[in-house]
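Justification of resources, computational component.

The compute hours requested in this renewal are based largely on the per-chain cost of generating structure records like the one below. Each record pairs the submitted sequence with a full structure-token output. That output is archived, and it is also reused by downstream analysis tasks.
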Amino acid sequence: MPQEHLRAPWFCIDFGGKTFSHFPDVLTLTEQVHRLKTVMRLKPGSAMNLIDLQTQIVYQALIQTVSAKNISVELIAKQEKNAPKVKITAAVSLIKANRWEEMLQKLTELAVTTIQPLITERTIIRDAKHERWEQILIQAAEQSEQSRIPEIKPPLKLSEWIRTLDEPSLKLVPIEPYTQEGLPPLKSVVSHFTSAVYAIGPEGGWTAHEVKLFQHSGFIGVSLGDTILRSETAAIFMASILRYEHDAL
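The structure output for this chain reads:
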């Protein structure tokens, strides 16, 4: 890859089903023109990386011309990133909007594959702003230079979600240490795995009924230490450990 494109900004674009295989080629952008021109201050000659939202292919590009309504770019080459070596699903009880949205950003940076909002017995029901969530994931993917954007599902009740699960190689649920003794630390149960699912409860934790539901569904209860973590912190911590442990195996 040419040196001048290594730190070029990344942008997610809907290519409308178009594919490119011969380079150089030309693409006219009609979306995000204001952002690219005014906010990012890109101009003719600026390098950029375009992520096709449908195919998740990354195209290296140079801006040719800029007008009020469109931007013409020259596509130089494409880079198809390998599929993730591990699939991680984070199922998290809905929490306050600002903390939920920050968590979405961090889980995207950690290359979580799927995010499942959960409604638990102690969840305070909140509006599901699915379109806004998707935009947050896209912006986080651009910032962290990732072509693969997590899939975010519609909210489900805990029991309904568990019934929909395929069988991953690892199913984990952190449980507060004061509610159950003898829980193994997370790191001790993470071994060779190709897919992992974990569930994070709301403020106030899981109910006894929910803990039994997890046990009957094959989840491994784990401890995240002696301190009590907020839901969004626990979700990020779990993703970090799973990503680190898998990459270290």
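The longest strand covers residues 58-66. The CA atoms of residues 47 and 62 lie 5 Å apart.
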